[in-house]
Write a structure and sequence with these properties.
262 residues, alpha+beta, D-Maltodextrin-Binding Protein, domain 2, binds adenosine-2'-monophosphate, binds calcium ion
């Protein structure tokens, strides 16, 4: 397996896909809904996933592809090399704002995250991590994470989780919101994970994400010394939807024991 070749192609295709998205801003989007009125998909989500699949099949026919729009493979396991792709993470932002969305590509080998790529298309910022070899923004190395106390932490959190909901007892979330320095919600899990990786926010909590939302981001977070688990502090499963909680190590442990598991 030639990882350098794979690396080069993966980054190149992601940039090309981003260029296609930027060009689409001047055209009219075809918007439809999926599971609910707020679960949106556009022709670009589908086109970009198909673009990746075509390229991967041509150059790496033995690789498997797991993508949000379902044009890839149906996976039974994570054996071999698996590309986990979200062609547009933050589709609602893409539609409403034409910003705050990203392309997310995680490449796993036998279940181990090897390459994480998140492309902030509008800012032309490509975040990349290779397991054991550091993380980079447009080729510039990113420093390892430093710890932050709860009282000085900014936490990525959607306001919905601090209201009555079926995924978590919201009375655990309210004191967390009160105790931290601030909360933010960007509407793209991939970007929020990259913001934790690069220290712009200190933790990120979501009660329900799909593997393609977090596959690339957790590789970046872990490469820079952060911890990625579900909200019970257990290992994430790349084959199913899950809650996700990432933070710097000490902060992760503090938030788990003082709030989420209290
Ligand atoms: P998407 O835009 O690719 O659908 C928004 O809060 C974040 O959560 C986005 O990253 C969005 O990804 C993801 N998301 C929204 N609804 C979801 C759902 N029902 N299951 C999993 N992920 C979801
Ligand atoms: Ca998506």
């Amino acid at each position: 397996m030639k990882w350098e070749e794979l690396d080069t192609y993966a980054k190149q295709w992601t940039k090309e896909a981003g260029e296609r998205i930027r060009s689409s801003f001047s055209t009219t989007l075809d918007i439809t809904t999926k599971s609910s009125p707020n679960d949106l998909v556009t022709n670009m989500d589908r086109d970009i996933e198909k673009f990746f699949i075509e390229k991967i099949r041509e150059h790496f026919p033995q690789h498997k592809i797991f993508g949000e729009e379902g044009f890839g493979d149906t996976l039974n396991d994570l054996n071999g090399v698996v590309w986990i792709i979200d062609p547009i993470d933050g589709t609602m932002n893409f539609i409403h704002q034409q910003r705050n969305f990203a392309i997310s590509v995680g490449i796993y080998e036998n279940g181990i995250g090897q390459i994480g790529i998140i492309y902030d298309v509008v800012h032309d910022e490509l975040y990349y991590a290779r397991k054991g070899q550091g993380a980079y923004i447009n080729g510039e190395p990113v420093p390892k994470l430093k710890e932050t106390n709860i009282s000085e932490a900014i936490v990525g959190l959607n306001a919905i989780w601090a209201t009555e909901n079926k995924r978590i007892d919201y009375t655990k979330i309210v004191p967390l919101v009160q105790d931290v320095r601030g909360t933010r919600s960007y509407g793209s899990a991939a970007l929020e994970l990259v913001y934790v990786a690069t220290g712009r926010i200190d933790a990120y909590i979501s009660m329900r994400l799909a593997p393609w939302d977090f596959a690339a981001g957790i590789i970046l977070v872990q490469e820079l010394g952060g911890i990625a688990t579900n909200i019970e502090g257990k290992e994430l499963n790349l084959m199913e939807k899950s809650s996700v909680f990432v933070a710097k190590p000490h902060l992760h442990q503090q938030i788990l024991s003082n709030y989420l598991l209290k």
